[in-house]
């Protein structure tokens, strides 16, 4: 997958100062940062272009929902709706290696791309003091999957990140080796019953002591796959037709480049830029669904199957899949 240059080809800087890292994040750059679990690849979660840069730098072929990092529980709960159980778990486990999935608030400013279009959002407060200081100074939710290229091992030192992503990202906040070294535990509290989505730094036993019995853990890989596999989360109400250069008279159009003037269109990227298109994708599907009610369907322009186009086409294929 072709990377999108984030740094105007400048080498990746090793940073010791949370303030410098926060400044780069505020400017829409990608900055890896150490936490107690593994190094995360951070970007301003409210900036869909910056979030698209994460997928591009990692070479991810699909848009998985990303965990948003906050300096404290108040900041996190301003963007998601805490349940009583979530507040109890937060008091016991945050800051720390625990991620909670909760319903987004209506005014949540996190880009739809960071949440992969889901109505829920995964939030975490890392315990690493420099990382928390960076988050505080950034004053933004920071989306952060592990700071490795897709399919490679999660990094537990700045040197690992540099070896894998050097030249593709603006900086790395070096917080030394990660003491926990495995990813955070992910618990889904957005439904009726708490479900352990991914085992990690906080044990199941510790969580069951707080929450009671947890719903069945999905088989390995399913936690990653399940949010992305739920076609209904991505499918607009209207039928979707792919690879269309000449939409039918009664169809609305999701354009990439040329856009017909005689119908309702949402433009992913007039200049055919895949990073811009990825940033606009979920917004476009939601917008057309809300505004094209009288249309027979949504026709989608052909998107090249290179770079971020792979992830865009993966999502579009789900949106166009037969409804179950
Ligand atoms: P990573 O980005 O590698 O740290 O992985 C993040 C994990 O959190 C994956 O297992 C995701 O599937 C999971 N995750 C993130 N957001 C959500 C969400 N809204 N609902 C369910 N799982 C989520
Ligand atoms: Mg990972």
List keywords for this structure.
single chain; 324 residues; alpha/beta; DHBP synthase; four-stranded parallel β-sheet; 11 helices; disordered N terminus; binds adenosine monophosphate; binds magnesium ion
Short recap of the structure:
Helix 1 packs parallel to helix 5 and helix 2 (48-58) crosses helix 10 (274-291).
Task: Provide structural commentary.
The chain has 324 residues and is an alpha/beta fold. The protein has two domains: 13-211, DHBP synthase (Alpha-Beta Complex), CATH 3.90.870; 240-319, no CATH class. 32% of the residues lie in helices and 17% in strands. It has helices at 18-26, 48-58, 73-77, 84-93, 129-138, 158-165, 204-211, 222-229, 231-234, 274-291, 309-320; strands spanning 13-15, 31-33, 40-44, 67-69, 98-103, 120-124, 142-143, 171-173, 185-188, 195-198, 240-241, 251-256, 265-269, 297-300. A ten-stranded mixed beta sheet has the order 1-8-2-3-7-4-6-5-9-10, sandwiched between helices. It has a four-stranded parallel beta sheet with strand order 11-14-12-13. Strand 2 and strand 3 form a beta hairpin. The two termini are 32 Å apart. Mean pLDDT is 90; it is low at 1-7 and 228-233. Bound molecules: adenosine monophosphate and magnesium ion. Residues 64-67, 101, 115, 118, 120-122, 145-146, 183, 186, 188, 197-198, 223-224, 227 line the site of adenosine monophosphate (AMP).
């Amino acid at each position: 997958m072709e990377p999108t240059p984030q740094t105007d080809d400048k080498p990746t800087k090793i940073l010791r100062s949370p303030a410098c890292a926060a400044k780069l994040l505020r400017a829409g750059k990608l900055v890896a940062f150490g936490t107690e679990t593994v190094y995360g690849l951070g970007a301003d979660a409210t900036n869909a272009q910056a979030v698209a840069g994460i997928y591009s730098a990692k070479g991810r072929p699909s848009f998985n929902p990303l965990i948003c990092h906050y300096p404290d529980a108040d900041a996190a709960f301003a963007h998601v709706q805490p349940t009583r159980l979530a507040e109890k778990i937060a008091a016991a486990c945050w800051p720390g290696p625990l991620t909670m999935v909760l319903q987004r608030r209506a005014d949540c400013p996190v880009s739809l791309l960071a949440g992969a279009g889901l109505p829920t959002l995964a939030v975490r407060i890392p315990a690493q003091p420099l990382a928390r200081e960076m988050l505080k100074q950034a004053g933004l939710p920071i989306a952060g999957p592990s700071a490795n290229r897709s399919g490679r091992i999660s990094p537990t030192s700045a040197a690992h990140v540099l070896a894998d992503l050097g030249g593709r990202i603006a900086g790395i906040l070096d917080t030394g080796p990660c003491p926990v070294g495995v990813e955070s535990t992910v618990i889904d509290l957005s439904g009726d019953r708490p479900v352990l989505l991914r085992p990690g730094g906080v044990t199941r036993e510790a969580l069951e002591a707080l929450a009671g019995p947890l719903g069945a853990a999905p088989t390995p890989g399913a936690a990653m796959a399940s949010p992305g596999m739920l076609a209904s989360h991505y499918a607009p109400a209207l039928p979707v037709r792919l690879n269309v250069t000449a939409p039918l008279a009664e169809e609305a159009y999701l354009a990439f480049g040329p856009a017909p003037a005689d119908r309702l269109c949402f433009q992913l990227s007039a200049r055919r830029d895949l990073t811009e298109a990825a940033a606009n994708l979920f917004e476009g599907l939601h917008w057309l669904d809300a505004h094209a009610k009288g249309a027979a369907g949504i026709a989608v322009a052909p998107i090249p199957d290179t770079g971020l186009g792979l992830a865009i086409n993966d999502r579009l294929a789900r949106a166009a899949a037969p409804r179950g």
